[in-house]
Amino acid sequence: MVELMIPLAIMLILTVIAIPILMKPLRAYQLDDAAARVSNLLKFTHFEAVRRNTQVSFLIQWNGTAWVVGTDSNGNGQIDPTERQEVIMGFATLLPSGGLPPPTAITTALGVATLTTLSGNRGSVPSVTFDARGAVRVDGTITTDLSIIYIGIAAHPELGYRAVVVAPAGGTQVWTAPPRGTTWLRIS
Hints:
By secondary structure, the chain is an alpha+beta fold. The chain contains two helices and twelve strands, in the order αββββαββββββββ.
C-alpha cells in the first residue's frame, strides 16, 4: 500500500504545480481569441457595407451577463438573433480605457490624435458605422478618429491586454500590451 501511495503523492504534487503553469497560456489564448472574433466581425461588417452599397453598423451591447458584438444588417439599432454576432464572456471581457497602458504607441503609429473608446460602457450601445465605400462615419460625416475596443481579464492584469482598432478608412488592427507592459505592440 505504501508503494502505491508514494507515486500517487508525487503525481498529486506535480499536478498542483502544473495547473497554474498551464492556465496562463490558456488565458492568453482566450484573450487572443476574443480579440480575433471582434476583429473578424468588424471586418465582416465593413465588407457587408461595401457589398450591399449601404451603411451598416457594428454594435456592442451588454446583455446583463456578457458582451454581445454584432452586425446590424437591417439598420434597426440592435443586434437581432438572425444577424451575425459574437458573445464575449467568461474570463476575457471588454474593458473601459481606465487603468490600461496609455495608447500613445497606437496613436503615434497610426498618425491620429483622437481615440474613441467603444468598450466597457454598459449603459450605452456604442457603434461603428461603415458607409458604402467602407469608411467609418459618425453622425453622417466621415471621421478622422480611431475607434478602439479594449479586451482583457479584469482579475488578471498580469496576462496583458488586447485592443482592436478601427481606422477611419475602415481597416482593423489588433494590438497587445504585454503583461506589466507600458506600451502597445501591433500583432495583426
